[in-house]
Amino acid sequence: MRFRKLRIAWSVFWGLVAVLLCLLWVRSYWHNESFGYYGQTRSIGVASHGGVVTFKQIEQLASGGWEFSTWPSAGSRNLKSHFLITCSDLRAARTKIEVPHWMGVLALGCVVVAPFQFNRFSLRTLLLATTLVAVLMGVLVWVTKNYNR
Question: Same domain for 148 and 85?
């Protein structure tokens, strides 16, 4: 098996990231966390709360630099946000995308296992993977276009 140690290191690293994401997922039901950059014209950040990770971008006039904050959770979240990706208007001054933690854990699990599943790539495998990525991107574009209707 070629590059065996590299595959093991890859899997161990992303496995640790997946475990840390699981811990953040469990913690998000008791504590909210937020990390971001507050610049002069735009603020960007990521927050973890109630089983979801929120990516936000706000156009505002504030200057504060990097900030990390944590506070106790106020209560339960909408159950819909635990199963679906939700996003606000992507063209507005306020953009917010919420992704459930379990989707990140599932994606990282695939990244951990992938190097050991595919020892050799054939042209058919490459075409199938490209088609799958294209279909998923098409569904994502369709969902974001039809979200605000």
Answer: no
Is 20 in the same domain as 66? yes
86-87 and 31-38 strand pairing: unpaired
Do 111 and 128 belong together in one domain?
no
φ, ψ at 45 (rounded to 5°): -165, 170
Residues 55 and 108 in one domain: yes
Domain extent at residue 94 = 4-117
Mean pLDDT by 10 residues, the chain (149 residues): 78 90 89 87 87 84 80 66 64 78 87 75 79 85 64
- Could you say which DSSP state residue 85 is in? -
Q: Enumerate the β-bridge partners of residue 46.
A: 35, 55
Alpha helix (H) residue ranges in the chain: 4-27, 101-117, 123-146
Global pTM? 0.67
